[in-house]
Design goal:
disordered N terminus, 10 helices, ten-stranded mixed sheet, alpha/beta
């Protein structure tokens, strides 16, 4: 993953990421993430009709990979940049994604070609939806309002057996979200992920750990921000909703001389990808 350096506090989230999208997308990969290929069955282990949430999805091909799984009924991604959804729709025409403009009160919808930036549209296709909004705006919505937002204009609907008007998920796939948000928001983020998961739900989490650095700034810089195993455990094992946190794999992310040289210029001498499965209580 290419480093995108910024101060540790991001105040204008949309402006920050809009600027990144105007240049080289170092975080975007053309191939399905190998950790998802290796451990993806964890996300669909307990049901034949799984809903999967992908926070800060960008235009990741991982969403198309998940949507192609016969055991996945609905993939829901969210990104603050509309261009991400538009380019994903162009890259995957078989998913037939169509944009819908949402009213502020989420009570009406219509097919839309208008320019929007954030919080006004959602793209629906074959087994997949992408919301254009700030992640935390959606996380802070009441359950019923969020359910309408996620399904409005689509053929999907909350389960009739849900005890509340919600649209909860069987699993969450986080490859690029927790490493991208401001570190000050991590506790709130980990709490809200539990709100989105059904009982017995699972989360596949991939983080980056800058194991050895030449200076303190290199440790703090991001995104992607560094998150160690101990930090992940401290965040999630303290959550009431969490049953268990398991480290599945630790992989050296500096595998080539080019990688080592590029990150060394940023003061990073060791970089590891950590893969976790986090399980929710029943």
């Amino acid at each position: 993953m290419e480093i995108e350096t910024t101060p540790a506090t991001i105040t204008n989230v949309h402006g920050f990421w809009a600027e990144k999208w105007s240049g080289f997308l170092g975080w975007h990969k053309p191939d399905v993430n190998p950790h998802l290929q290796k451990y993806g069955d964890i996300l669909v282990a307990d049901s034949e009709s799984n809903r999967v949430f992908v926070p800060l999805c960008g235009k990741s091909v991982d969403m198309a990979y998940l949507a192609s799984n016969e055991r996945v009924s609905h993939v829901v991604g969210i990104d603050i940049i509309k261009q991400a959804a538009e380019e994903f729709a162009q890259d995957h025409p078989t998913l037939a994604l169509t944009e819908f403009q949402l009213a502020n009160n989420a009570d009406s919808e219509q097919s839309c070609d208008a320019e929007t930036t954030t919080g006004t549209s959602v793209f629906h296709g074959n087994g997949i939806s992408i919301m254009v909004d700030d992640l935390f705006n959606v996380l802070h919505m009441p359950n019923e309002e969020r359910a309408k937002y996620m399904t409005q204009g689509s053929t999907f609907s909350p389960d009739e057996n849900d005890s509340i008007a919600s649209y909860a998920f069987d699993s969450i796939y986080d490859r690029a979200s927790m490493v991208a948000i401001d570190p000050s928001l991590r506790k709130e983020y980990s709490t809200q992920m539990g709100e989105l998961l059904k009982p017995n739900g699972v989360m596949l989490l991939v983080t980056l750990d800058r194991g050895k650095v030449s200076n303190d700034t290199a440790k703090r810089d991001g995104p992607p921000f560094s998150i160690s195993e101990s930090e992940v455990r401290q965040l999630y094992e303290s959550q009431e909703w969490v049953e268990s946190v398991e480290l599945l794999e630790e992989v050296n992310d500096l595998r080539t001389d080019e990688d080592k040289e590029r990150w060394a210029k940023k003061g990073v001498l060791e970089l590891f990808e950590l893969v976790f499965v986090i399980r929710k209580k029943s």
